[in-house]
Amino acid sequence: MSEQPAPVQTSGSAVPGSPAAADAGPLPAELAAALKRDSAGLVAAVVQQYDTNEVLMLGWMDDEALHRTMTTGRVTFYSRSRQEYWRKGDTSGHVQWVKSVAMDCDGDALLVRVDQMGAACHTGTRTCFDGRELNVTTAQAV
Amino acid sequence: MSEQPAPVQTSGSAVPGSPAAADAGPLPAELAAALKRDSAGLVAAVVQQYDTNEVLMLGWMDDEALHRTMTTGRVTFYSRSRQEYWRKGDTSGHVQWVKSVAMDCDGDALLVRVDQMGAACHTGTRTCFDGRELNVTTAQAV
Q1: Which of A53, A58, A122 to mutate to test the interface with B (most CBs of B within 10 A)?
Q2: Domain span at B99
Q3: Model confidence, pTM
């Protein structure tokens, strides 16, 4: 559990003074209950360009990162390597403006549709998958 | 490490009798070295419809599942909940025919482009994200 960041308490979603208030995280209760986090408290977030449907990158979010992404219009990840929150574009200028967020059927993945400014990848390519194809055997419906 | 399946030895990539043969996994050495697996030995695999760019689902692969996906033309995942390999479509008929596989810049995610037969989601929807949008604050470039 060493990768799990300390929960950040925010106001707003819990009723002050209610029994649940002390334990309430930043997310609505129903969403928090549906999320299936890994052992580090994270879910995978697929980031997709909203108009072209390009898959830009995959990042990781804990409850607080998802809360910030849902409420601020800017995508925020939790960096597993740096163990800190990371608002995309703060250093690079390559901001991701949030268009929609969906959770998958079993709660362990998010699809975040954005308008990506510039390159999504820190290497300078548009997506983190560009030019990184593996040699595979392909197939088609018969 | 309890979720990590036992490595499956396959022939072909290792030279018989060479010092490395006994330890060689199913993947080419360069790829195996680049993959950044989680504590359960898995990487996230984003599955995308190759012609429409729809994000269909997210699954998990260990080295053997990736090897099977790269060499058989059919997508195979490793199921975290059932702790077994799972070739998409074997029970549902909703086969995923492999068109391409790419690894991302830091090796912890795969983009698998497929031709999806029928519904990708076990609930019957085309994708695992359909109809599961969260309430968010959206934003646009200024």
Answers
A1: A58
A2: 19-116
A3: 0.84
